[in-house]
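We close this part of the discussion by returning to an individual protein. Part of our work consisted of pairing the sequence of a single chain with a tokenised description of its backbone. What the numbers capture is local backbone geometry rather than side-chain detail. The amino acid sequence and the backbone structure tokens for this protein are reproduced below.
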Amino acid sequence: MHRRRRTALTVSAALLAAAPVLTACGGGDTHPGAAAVIDGQRIEVTALQAQVKDVRTAQQASPQAAQLIQATGDLNREKLNGMIFDRVVEKVAADQGISASRKEVQQTRREAAKQSGGEEQLAAMLLQQQGVAPGEIDAVVRRNVLMNKIADKFGATNTPEGQRKLTQVFAAASQELDIEVNPRYGSWDDEKIQLGEYSAPWIRKLGGREQM
């Protein structure tokens, strides 16, 4: 059956909650060295710091270095939120029997690069708008492939009811993962599927959808 072409790297507005927190919570650190623990699996502080370093290195090499760095001042929380959100997406996809093949990821990335004017322009756009380092692009594309498939399955691209259902599914998956965050980075909100109440400035709502 013919399916409509989708603008590369777009997702349902009900899904994209990958944004950092500015809210702290009390309590001690029960998992030393962990930025977060998800379903018993740790996201190490060192892994988070490695992602932050990659982004800062890419930003510093940009002609707009100062502007990019200023726009992503709290990069630790921004990156941790994305790392946690990716785990939620993976769980929902697995629960729904949805996968993203390497071929699909590569094809979607090629389409995104073509629409952006080339790989270099795509990398620059993602670095500027989302704080994505060049080495993270495939992971971002994979997330979007999965999210678009999930959105289609629940009809979230067509109806408010579908978007509400989708939000419920993601919130339930988030709760099942029993997400604990190191207090230095804030607290995870299962209902909003994000750290705290922060909304990333690069998330743009376009006709009921958000584009990456």
In short: Helices lie at 45-60, 65-71, 75-95, 102-116, 119-130, 137-153, 160-176. The radius of gyration is 17 Å. Residues 1-8, 11-28, 198-212 have pLDDT under 50 and may be disordered. The beta strands are 10-12, 34-38, 41-44, 180-181, 188-189, 194-195, 204-206, 209-211.
